Amino acid sequence: MLLALRIIRGRLLLSSQRTSLSPLSKFRSFTAGTMGDNATSQQQQPSAAADHKPPHPAQRQKAAPRPKKEVRILMLHGYTQSGPLFRAKVRALEKMLAKALAPLNLVPALLYPTAPERLSPRDIPGYQPSEGADESEETDSWAWFRKDEASGNYRLVDRGMVRIAESMAEAIPPPQPQAVAEGGNSGEQKVESTEETGVIDGVVGFSQGGCMAAMLASAMEPDRTVSSPEDEEWVKAVRDANKGQPLKFAVSYSGFWAVPERLGWLYEPKIKTPTLHILGSLDTVVEESRSQGLVERCEEPLVVTHPGGHYVPVNKEWVMPLVGFVRKCLEEEK
């Protein structure tokens, strides 16, 4: 009987040990359960960052659009031409420039001044007077300067440059209000200063206009010393018109350098303004040596030769070098 009671008591004790846990075991069990519950809670509940949804497009405050900037380019016609005639011949350039500069938020504004010296019929190369023709009749043919065949000097360069300075001054726009930067007071306005932006960004010239374009770019370089007293007045005029800022680029189509010794200061030292020279391999009007002379008087000039004569090529293949050059010069200035 006593043996049976001991057996029963032992079985009860063994059963109790199997079903009860030590304090350490209870702590481990609680910790594991708590971590599991927390893990489940983190998976089911999104984070605060996830709860933060972007505002509806209608609720967003629209940022002020970046204002477009005009790129002002002087277009200088050749001998016997005029500003309107030159524009009619190169209208294709305007369209391609506008398309190329649009991604930069730039809008080209091309200015076509007419030279001051009106030519008579006898001044026009190849002119053959007909019987009874009135040679005093006015023409729509103009020149930036005249060459004295006896001395080789260039007359009236100063008048041509003063006309260019006047055209530059006319191109000065009134101050335009701009949107304030992000975070500013929406009621405030920022005015773009013409002193900061200048007036003319670049120049493109054809033939005699190409010669003038190179001289203009050189004269507007602020570190260039004017060694000829005869030129001081017009140099001051063009520099003042552009607020003392140099041109960003100069393009010469069938251009040439000015031979007279008096103008040598324009080429020594070499012209630092970036230049592009587009020449015709069949040009019989401007000798190759004269065009090459201009190229050699520029620092790091770019030269493109098209298989044509004395004209500005406007087909896409030959306009793209101009477009790429202008865009590159403007991107480097941004």
UniProtKB/TrEMBL annotation:
SUPFAM superfamilies: alpha/beta-Hydrolases
Alphabetic keyword roster: Hydrolase
A Pfam family per the record: FSH1
UniProt name for this protein: Serine hydrolase-domain-containing protein
Residue ranges constituting the Serine hydrolase domain according to the UniProt record: 69-320
A biological process term (GO) from this entry: secondary metabolic process
Cellular component, GO, one term: cytoplasm
